[in-house]
Design goal:
2 copies of one chain form a homodimer. Helices cover 29% and strands 25% of the residues of chain A. Chain A has 344 residues and is α/β, with parallel strands linked by helices. In chain A, strands 3, 5, 6, 9, 10, 17 and 18 form a 7-stranded mixed sheet that branches. In chain A, helix 5 packs across helix 11. Chains A, B: Pfam families: ADH_N (PF08240), ADH_zinc_N (PF00107).
Chain lengths: 344, 344
């Protein structure tokens, strides 16, 4: 089959790799119908050193089950399924608590001999724990929306949930990428009354307004902080959803959060330390969030997509065929595209 | 009047200073009946540079109201009161939310011309917002217990509350100082089933056991982490109450907290940055806590003392008269005393 490989920064190739095969009785094999490029794929795309053992890319995908191992009971051949961005057994103590990203037998796509999600097919370990059947056909117009259940919508939702967003709250979302926009959708779903979106790209913040942002602040750093404080009577907001992953964004979050408030970070941290010393201690700031246990949120979020309440798939503003996936990376890296859908 | 002044590291003097007088109609003046030395007093005691304008020390005290301004309505002359370690107006938006430490008109004792709590008397700004009347006399045997409402008990309780300790939880407390022991009391009050106290001083951890600790781990660093993991089936605990304030204690907290768990820090951070980067993000660790809004907890905690449910005053293992307060500092700094009560 064909799959996307990263050889070094900027060097994305689509090559023949071995076809996935069942290895364990708990495995399934899926033929991939739709995948996409994640903001987090851009970190290695920008910086990976040259290697002989290229990285298998992609971790968000929808597919059709082709084969299942003898112990798989919840999906079967022909089912359309969404695949969360980590696999998990669904039965360990962490999975039972909803923290599927800390599954004792779980892991990430594209590493340790596993396929990535930007390819034609993938072996799925722990198919029962990992896969969620979709009640639509593979030609459904909802496919882009449902694809966001794999990662980006659940990641934005994780920010809002762990921050404790409730009806009537005022929330700041930092970042107008696909995760930030998903956080806007999520804050609105949870009843936030006011959602201040911090971002500089008008096309994206316009979509953010359609998703539910009530205010947009284009300023960054101290300017941005002052603008949010001005909007909130000097206090800042109860919750800040940090959807970037850079230290500057975290500092901005600390600047706009209200004393006693919560910062939830879901952008993969590109820093080893958090600048939370004595001043933030005096202000009683909480830092929460982390990698989203997408699997645990899918059952809760899918109905909102099927009902047409939310249209998170609008974050996909480009679609490329698999053999042009390198162009998809370039478009996202150069900010010409917000999020790129890949059709094998 | 006489008051405690710090001129430089190790140089504590009791000197004559001007008597406190009402300055605002919202002020009160109290004669101090009991004060004490706080672990946080030891940071300047260890490190303060020489100065001509010495620091007025002490921020935990009980006193008798001597005079009140014309607008004070909740206390009057002769009332015995406990004084939280910060003053607050009780009416601003932050106070109304219970975050009295972020009061818009509040502040700390001993700075900006205010008296400290290790002296004979003090002017109290915002007396209505700050003071809490005690329903006992100044000769009550409960005075040491009630004095802990000023700071140390409320600080331990803040750790347990912000960590979300609930009935049945397993909690780690890091630090066997007076705050750590108060955190043990608090975790037990909130229903924790298992309380693992990490500390090396047998006399203190023995008191911790009497307060409710079910396990004591004397090991530190990796040894300590492994011991707690062994006690918890490899998982670590849901909550960790970090009652030290050093970076090593925070690293230890990250080592013993369960994936998806909460670290609450109430030891004043002696570090500018928190080592919470990508690994802690992957584990979904929450960092909460901060300086305790003691005033907001006093009404809730006082009945437990009056009923005899808890005896937090047992953390005071020495009492010194005011003119020997320097010896009190030395005893605590040399770990010969756990916490020193000061009688003016």
């Amino acid at each position: 089959m064909r799959a996307t490989l990263l050889y070094q920064a900027g060097d994305i190739r689509v090559e023949d790799v071995s076809d996935p095969k069942l290895q364990q009785p708990t495995d399934a094999v899926v033929r991939i119908v739709a995948g996409c490029v994640c903001g987090s794929d851009l970190w290695p795309y920008k910086s990976a050193p040259l290697t002989d053992t290229p990285r298998h890319m992609g971790h968000e995908f929808i597919g059709v089950v082709e084969e299942t191992g003898t112990e798989v009971t919840t999906v079967r051949s022909g089912d359309l399924v969404v695949v969360p961005f980590t696999y998990s057994d669904g039965t360990c103590e962490n999975c039972r608590r909803g923290l599927t990203t800390s599954c004792r037998h779980g892991g990430a796509w594209g590493v340790g001999g596993l396929d990535g999600g930007q390819g034609e097919a993938a072996r799925i370990p722990w198919a029962d724990g990992t896969l969620v059947k979709l009640p639509v056909g593979e030609d459904s117009e909802l496919l882009p929306d449902l694809l966001t259940l794999s990662d980006v919508l659940c990641t934005g939702y994780h920010a809002a949930r762990t921050a404790g967003v409730q009806a009537g709250d005022t929330v700041t979302v930092i970042g107008d990428g696909a995760v930030g926009l998903s956080a806007v959708i999520s804050a609105k779903l949870l009843g936030a009354e006011r959602i201040i979106l911090m971002g500089r790209h008008t096309q994206r913040t316009d979509l953010g307004r359609e998703f539910g942002a009530t205010d947009v602040v284009a300023g960054r750093g101290q300017d941005g902080v002052e603008a949010v404080r001005e909007l909130t009577g000097g206090f800042g907001t109860d919750q800040v959803l940090e959807c970037v992953g850079l230290k500057d964004a975290l500092l901005q979050a600390a600047g706009v959060v209200r004393d006693g408030g919560v910062i939830s970070r879901v952008g993969a941290p590109q820093y080893p330390e958090v600048p939370f010393g004595f001043p933030e201690f005096l202000r009683n700031i909480t830092l929460t969030g982390g990698v989203a246990p997408a699997r645990a949120y899918i059952d809760e979020l899918m109905p909102h997509i099927l009902n047409g309440d939310i249209h998170p798939g609008r974050v996909f503003d480009r679609t490329v065929p698999l053999d042009q996936v390198a162009e998809g990376y370039r478009l996202m890296n150069d900010r010409e595209a917000l999020k790129v859908l890949v059709r094998p």
